[in-house]
Amino acid sequence: MDHLLDKAADWIAESRRAVAFSGAGVSAESGIATFRDPGGVWERFDPAEVGTAAGIASLLRSGPARLYGFLREVLDSVLRAEPNGGHRALAALEEIRRLQAVITQNVDDLHQSAGSSKVVELHGNVLRLRCIECGHGEKLDRHSLAARLERAFGGDLGLKAILDRLPRCERCGEFVRLDVVLFGESVQDLDHAYDLAESADLMLVVGTSGTVYPAAELPEVCRQAGGRIIVVNPSENNFARLGGLFLQERSGIALASLAKRVEARVSSEGHA
Ligand code: APR
């Protein structure tokens, strides 16, 4: 693994337009369950039921306690989570100008909390509410999100009672929802992500199974445009055969070691 880490660090140190593409595996090291690993979210909850607008609408009527259980479990792990060494390593690479941006499928705000300033969120962010009428976005901190959830579901679970307690838009008074992309909905900031992938000379693909499109197209877009691919994942995935470097390691370990090696290279070249 050492020689692979050295080679990957060489590639990143000499890159000028590198981007990272991250998935749930990066946040796994902050205690947030991934979706498709054994015991993952989609093994315990049905994505058609809790991951689509239609499923959620029908669950609100037929099984609000189950919907609350899903939201509570997923949000509690996000609310407890702190950025880990993998998040911090990506922020450090941006700091020394060896990473232009992080394109993430994660919705947990951990890249931003770790200090990454250019984060393209394809699937939204649980700490943002969006009005279903006027589209107004409202940023929340972790505690106010928990309080809103508790207020909406922490009492009589009759549909009308829940609807009466759901948060409303601070601008137009209509219903608001978590600003996360459900299955069947359009991905956010996709054009920006495509532009970054097309112009990148290197993409660091970390902690994703590469099973959900259109996000999963991005590494191929980068490779087709001549970019180098570095995959970080403890198991083989769809990208390991894209013809780049495959670091079969957990993100927290591999990224921290990569950032340290790149920093050493960049400072010894004297142009940090
Ligand atoms: N370090 C790096 N990678 C890891 C780690 C770790 N510690 N632990 C697990 N992984 C890898 C797994 O091997 C797997 O390849 O993370 C990946 C997690 O895959 P998924 O659970 O499918 O998550 P992701 O690829 O981010 O899913 C994409 O699917 O359900 C939707 O919207 C959801 O954004 C999500 C999208």
Bound molecules: adenosine-5-diphosphoribose
Which structural class fits the helix and strand makeup? alpha/beta
How would you describe the shape?
A: elongated
Helix content: 40-55%
- Spans where pLDDT lies below 50 across 5 or more residues: none
Main sheet overview:
6 strands, parallel
CATH architecture of the largest domain: 3-Layer(aba) Sandwich
Residues in β-strands, percent: 15-25%
Q: What are the secondary-structure elements, in order, as H or E?
A: HEHHHHHHEHEEEHHEHEHEEH
What is the number of strand segments?
9
Strand adjacency order, main sheet:
3-2-1-7-8-9
Count of spatially separate domains: 2
CATH class of the largest domain: Alpha Beta
Please explain how this structure is put together:
The chain has helices at 2-14, 24-28, 41-44, 47-50, 53-62, 64-80, 85-95, 110-114, 142-153, 159-165, 190-199, 218-224, 251-269, and strands at 18-22, 101-104, 119-121, 124-131, 137-139, 176-180, 202-206, 228-232, 245-247. The protein is elongated. By secondary structure, the chain is α/β, with parallel strands linked by helices. The chain folds into two domains: 1-30 and 83-123 and 187-272, Rossmann fold; 33-80 and 128-180, SIR2/SIRT2 'Small Domain' (2-Layer Sandwich), CATH 3.30.1600. The longest helix is centred in the last third of the chain and has 19 residues, at 251-269. Adenosine-5-diphosphoribose binds next to helix 2.
